[in-house]
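chain below, 98 aa
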Amino acid sequence: MKCPVDGRELAITHREGIELDYCPECRGVWFDRGELDKVIERSNRDYDDYRREEREYKEEKRYKEEKYRDDRSKSDHHEYKPKKKKASSFLSDLLEFG
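prediction:
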């Protein structure tokens, strides 16, 4: 199949169970029937997982901060600063062509 933008031959890759047709020159991506639905479904599922992990992180952070305040009142400690987790994006992984 040829790229509708520049007429070059499209390359095919399989990512996360989805077949993608893309142009190596202009970097355009084309989906066959049903593939975009798979991407949206997977993206929504990953977003729900991310929101759940974010809630759990906030609860853990709140617990540690409360524990820190309790411990600090008992003795002198340095300030607790939890590190945030960086979320990996399904779409960025899917559309990364090197």
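The helical segments are 35-74, 90-94. Residues 35-74 form the longest helix (40 residues).
thats it, cya
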